[in-house]
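> forwarded from #structure-qc
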């Protein structure tokens, strides 16, 4: 591998100022000052240069893509996957792959439950030989 001829020495204080000042990429700084990206990275690490936190304005802040708590609540309540896809915008395959980690949904959601009176409930418990403690 050929080494760079030291015809024009690199102005490292200017490189450091550009590196620490802001949004220019390391590659752009390297091109501007006639050195390589890796040379800047090596020197910045060795000398402890820092870049501002907003040095990459093109990178949008990350946010959760889906509200998984709501999707899980609906899934466990027995909402069909097709309805989950419509409600939350997540792909069916994504929901089913993630749902493998969750408890099994109730068979028909709330439709399987019936409203009974306390007297009926006590009668069912006694028929099952369970002493109701009220």
């Amino acid at each position: 591998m050929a080494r760079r001829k030291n015809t024009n020495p690199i102005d490292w204080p200017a490189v450091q100022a550009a590196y620490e000042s802001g949004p220019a990429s390391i590659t752009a700084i390297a091109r501007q000052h006639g050195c390589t990206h890796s040379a800047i990275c090596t020197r910045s690490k060795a000398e402890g240069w820092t870049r501002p936190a907003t040095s990459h304005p093109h990178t949008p802040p990350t946010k959760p893509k889906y509200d998984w708590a709501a999707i899980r609540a609906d899934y466990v309540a027995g909402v069909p996957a097709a309805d989950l896809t419509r409600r939350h915008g997540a792909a069916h395959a994504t929901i089913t792959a993630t749902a493998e980690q969750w408890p099994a949904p109730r068979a028909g959601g709330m439709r399987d439950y019936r409203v009974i009176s306390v007297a009926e409930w006590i009668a069912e418990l006694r028929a099952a030989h369970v002493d109701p403690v009220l």
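QC bot note: Residues 12-47 form one domain. The mean pLDDT is 76.
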